[in-house]
Amino acid sequence: MGTDNVSFDDYVDIDDGVQTMGFPTDEDILDSVMENLVPFGKDLEEEVSSESEVETTTETIPTFNQAYSAIQTVRNFTSSKENVPNAVHASINVVEHFIEK
């Protein structure tokens, strides 16, 4: 067979239907999925239990006194530092006024 009758496209596409790598087995697919679901070798039960713990944890809303005390703590901290931009102190004042409303 001579190559005179073969077009360039036919030449380039000659091996389009040829399998160049193996197909993953069901076990390969499951292993891949399990690695993505359970990273770093954790047990699936550990992963499920840690997720349920996160869902049941609720944050308590601080009281006015706790929030005001936190602002005073931040103010004391920034006052003890040198070269604190005025914008930081102004921002603390804004938050304090917001809490007082």
Question: In terms of topology, how is this protein built?
Answer:
Layout: H1 8-12, H2 26-37, H3 44-56, H4 64-80, H5 86-100
Describe this structure in words.
It contains 5 helices and no strands. The protein has 101 residues and is mainly α. The protein has 2 domains: 25-58, no CATH class; 64-100. Helix 4 packs antiparallel against helix 5 (86-100). The radius of gyration is 32 Å and the shape is elongated. The model has no long low-confidence stretch (mean pLDDT 78).
Protein structure class:
mainly alpha
Q: What is the residue-mean pLDDT, rounded to a whole number?
A: 78
What is the H/E string? HHHHH
Number of strands: 0
Key traits:
single chain; 101 residues; mainly alpha; 2 domains; 5 helices; elongated
In short:
The chain has five helices and no strands.
